[in-house]
Amino acid sequence: MILRNSSSVTAFVFGGFSGQSAVHFPLFFLFLGLYVCTVVGNVGLLTLIGLHSSLHTPMYFFLFNLSWIDLCYSCAFTPKMLHDFLSENVISYAGCMAQLFFFCFLVNSECYVLVCMAYDRYVAICRPLRYPVTMSPQACALLVAGSYGVGFAGAMAHTGNMLRLTFCGSNVIDHYLCEVLPLLQLSCTSPRPNELVFSVVVGMVMATSSVSIVISYALILSSILRIPSAEGRSKAFGTCGSHLTTVALFFGSGAFTYLTTSFPGSAGRSKYASVFYTNVVPMLNTLIYSLRNKDVKLALGKTLKRVLF
Questions:
Q1: What is the pLDDT of residues 124-143, one digit of tens each?
Q2: What CA–CA distances, in Å, run from 209 to 21, 71, 131, 205, 243?
Q3: Are 182 and 87 in contact (CB under 8 A)?
Q4: Looking at the predicted structure, is the pLDDT value of residue 204 above 70?
Q5: Is the pLDDT of residue 267 over 60?
Q6: Are strands 11-14 and 90-92 parallel, antiparallel or unpaired?
Q7: Which of 5, 14, 92, 35 is nearest to 278 (CA)?
Q8: What angle do CA 201, 193, 256 make, to 5 degrees?
């Protein structure tokens, strides 16, 4: 195992699951199963949306990007985690910074893709006559490009500030991946500027995305309650159910992770909450949009008939 260097750290050791060596093999197969389900589910959803013209709508364009982010998210971290269960859990300094960048980029991007999906539902339900113009292909592309742009800017802010720090003490990260707060605990230089950047960026992302989604659904709810028929209200609510479930899972686990970091003994809870939103949520998103969506199930049925018969 690579030990710390007296002058500077060239590699880090993940200590996230080091105290649970007895269950490394069960955990390996558990996370391997989650990873396989995530990859198969998201690749399948991406394929269905790409192949079927009936799914070439703004809602499924945003879902395509959400599924792509979840796939990249899982592939960026889970293979390394699985490797660490079977051998030395060491990552190079450059590898750690790259992992940090992709983590921040994908998390921030997913937040705003979920905002785009909420806005899409708002226009579809509250402004249906203007939907084809408001949610044109160009507008959808700009919304997604903006989501990735904000994600890239946030990732550059976090990673750029992290590269300015000096690591010369312990190189053991009390986590299973390179996140901002566990890395700041190892810095030999003052992490105050980084903590400020972290608070500002995370606060802005969480505030703007959550407030945008809440406002969108408040307007949607107001519009739905004015629909005279119970069947119409039920149909309108049904188009939002999958997205609301995904939002609750993603923001709930993320908020639990970052809002409890200042509490005593919160490191362990934060670590396990991270497992949920890095390994479980990407798998659940596919199931939610597959099992609750008639269009996706219909497209899947057509594809299976075409392949099997």
A1: 999 999 999 999 999 999 99
A2: 39, 21, 22, 6, 14
A3: no
A4: yes
A5: no
A6: antiparallel
A7: 35
A8: 45
Buried/exposed code over 278-297 (b: 16+ C-beta within 10 A; e: otherwise): bbbbbbbbbebbbeebebbe
pLDDT of residue 123: 94
Q: What is the DSSP letter of 14?
A: E
DSSP-assigned letter for residue 15? -
Do residues 286 and 70 lie in contact, with contact meaning Cβ atoms separated by under 8 Å? yes
Beta bridge partners of 92: 11
Beta carbons within 8 Å of 18's beta carbon, 6+ residues apart: 89
Q: Which two structure tokens, joined as six digits, stand for 46?
A: 């991406």
The 10s digit of each residue's pLDDT in 228-245 is 888 777 877 777 888 888
What rounded mean pLDDT belongs to the chain?
Answer: 85
Query: Comparing C-alpha atoms, which of 37, 66, 27, 73 is closest to residue 287?
Result: 37
- Helix, strand, or coil (residue 102): helix
Euclidean distance between CA atoms 305 and 232, whole angstroms = 32
Residue 299 pLDDT more than 90? no
